[in-house]
Amino acid sequence: MSQTTIQINRAPVLALWATVVAERIGFDHDEALTLAKAVTGLTAQSKGRRLGIFKPVPAELKKARATKHDKQYHVEFLGRTVPVVNTPKGMRALNKDEPIEPASVTKYLEGKFGDQLTAAHDAMRDLAKAFRPEELADRAFGLYAKFRPTVPEDATGWGAKGVLDLDQIRALATATNRVP
Fold this sequence. Notes:
- The chain is an alpha+beta fold.
- It has one domain.
- Helix content is 54%, strand content 16%.
- It is built from seven helices and six strands.
- It has helices at 10-24, 29-51, 59-68, 102-113, 117-129, 133-147, 166-175; strands spanning 5-8, 73-77, 80-87, 90-95, 98-99, 162-165.
- The strands form two sheets. Strands 2-3-4-5 form a four-stranded antiparallel β-sheet, covered by helices on one side. A two-stranded antiparallel sheet has the order 1-6.
């Protein structure tokens, strides 16, 4: 019998969920991986600023970053504005002005989930399939909030592991009206 709970922190859970969501709404696998990593980083930065762990980026630095790539544009995804560029290999989200490498995201997910990556991916994929793509795009972060590991909301929760319950994710998929 497969394990139904995983001790893990929130960042890789969000990265995997965001990958699944991005694929469901139409991005190819490599594009989805980079969008997921960017959203995870942006979410961590936002929470880190709220907790006082990170200082806000000065406006002049934001402007310099925004003009570095003249073909840069933005994608709205999971409530975040993600900077992206087109590369010869396809669209890639940016991290500190550099295109994110999909292989690095795959390695990250494999390292964090270990032998439970497939089970977690399958549960999340089933949840994503329970929604039409346009509905999922609107509801994805709220769904994540329902199943993400519970950790303290203050600074003690930063990087802390919680329980990801795959049965809870499966139950969310079953509780919705399945898309034909």
